[in-house]
Specification:
Blueprint (H helix, E strand, L loop, with lengths): L1 E10 L5 E7 L8 E7 L1 H12 L8 H11 L3 E11 L2 E10 L2 E7 L1 H11 L2 E4 L1 H7 L1 E2 L6 H4 L10 H17 L8
Parallel strand pairs: 4-7
Antiparallel strand pairs: 1-2, 1-7, 2-3, 3-8, 4-5, 5-6
Length: 179
């Protein structure tokens, strides 16, 4: 298993949301990145949690967090365990009632929950080998090394990176990641 982080969420040319997962020990623009296509509602829920935004009413994943807290259950980690016929599978690993439980989940829902409770994200090595791609889209070394404040990145450089990522999304085909 490889521990990952959410590197970003984007739209592909067809308007589908893609969550990008990156191993935490790899620098932006190096190694691999794992794209997973997700629904619009899940993308919104993940972004709300990652950005710490307030919503007027709780999302389903906020409800999950509240229910788990009420039951004294703790989400240990999220594991993306496999790909079967182009579908990703995940498990929520939690402690409750004196034991460890594994709950089948869609990766998007599991990641949205993890983003709310601060749980670690893990991906099976086989999934990275099967569906990971070379990371040419998150090149941001200066920010990663703390040399530049991410709030004051040169707008020309930022625009070039966005354009590069758009080119990547225009050329990527979801079928490339099917098992």
């Amino acid at each position: 298993m490889v521990q990952v982080r959410v590197a970003g969420i984007a739209l592909d040319p067809a308007g589908q949301h893609v969550i990008l997962l990156k191993p935490i020990d790899e620098l932006p623009g190096e190694g691999q990145i794992l794209p997973i296509w997700i629904g619009a509602q899940e993308a919104t829920s993940i972004l709300v949690a990652v950005e710490g935004a307030e919503t007027p009413r709780p999302f389903a994943h906020d409800l999950m967090r509240s229910m788990l807290a009420s039951l004294d259950a703790i989400v240990q980690r999220i594991e993306i365990t496999r790909i079967t016929e182009g579908t990703y599978y995940a498990e929520i690993v939690l402690n409750a009632g004196g034991g460890t439980h594994r709950i089948d989940a869609r990766p998007s829902d599991a990641i949205a929950l993890a983003s709310r409770v601060g749980a670690e994200l893990w991906v099976a090595d086989e999934v990275i080998l099967q569906a990971g791609i070379v990371d040419e889209v998150t090149d941001d070394e200066e920010v990663a090394h703390g040399a530049v404040d991410p709030e004051v990145v040169d707008p020309v450089v930022a625009e070039e990176r966005v354009d590069e990522f758009k080119r990547f999304l225009e050329n990527v085909d979801p079928d490339d990641f099917r098992g």
